Amino acid sequence: MNLPESYIPILIQAGVAIGFVAVSLLGAHFLGPRQKKGNSVKNQSWECGVPVEGNARTPFSIKYFLTAVLFVLFDIEIVFFYPYAVNFREFGFEGFLAVLTFVAIFFVGFIYVWKRGALDWDK
């Protein structure tokens, strides 16, 4: 198998990444704390002496997760504006059109989310 020399660093990085994941998972499994089975007092939830209310596995509203995903999505959009803002003179009119297209795509997504009611907290 003859690989070009440019692939060797990529394969080394992939090997190191896979090795790190494997060592981390095996280390956590073998070196991590052991949980005792059963219903002992030691394994129960406890918060500063306040009696426990309900179950810790209570499901969250999907609105919480949708808001988090939307925040990340539009926050990442702002991150992509930084290189444009620093180099906008070098990009010229083509760069302006590219950024305008980028904003238009996100704006269409924002309108879609708005029309679907994802931003209505009362529902």
TrEMBL record:
Main subcellular localisation: membrane
A Pfam family matched in the record: Oxidored_q4
Gene3D superfamilies: NADH:ubiquinone/plastoquinone oxidoreductase, chain 3
Localization terms from the record: Cell membrane; Membrane
Keywords: Cell membrane, Membrane, NAD, Quinone, Translocase, Transmembrane, Transmembrane helix, Transport
Transmembrane intervals: 6-32, 64-85, 91-114
Main enzyme class: translocase
The EC number(s) this enzyme carries: 7.1.1.-
Membrane-protein topology: Multi-pass membrane protein
Catalytic activity: a quinone + NADH + 5 H(+)(in) = a quinol + NAD(+) + 4 H(+)(out)
Complex and partners: NDH-1 is composed of 14 different subunits. Subunits NuoA, H, J, K, L, M, N constitute the membrane sector of the complex.
Family: Belongs to the complex I subunit 3 family.
Physiological role: NDH-1 shuttles electrons from NADH, via FMN and iron-sulfur (Fe-S) centers, to quinones in the respiratory chain. The immediate electron acceptor for the enzyme in this species is believed to be a menaquinone. Couples the redox reaction to proton translocation (for every two electrons transferred, four hydrogen ions are translocated across the cytoplasmic membrane), and thus conserves the redox energy in a proton gradient.
Name of the protein in its database record: NADH-quinone oxidoreductase subunit A
Native species: Chryseobacterium paridis
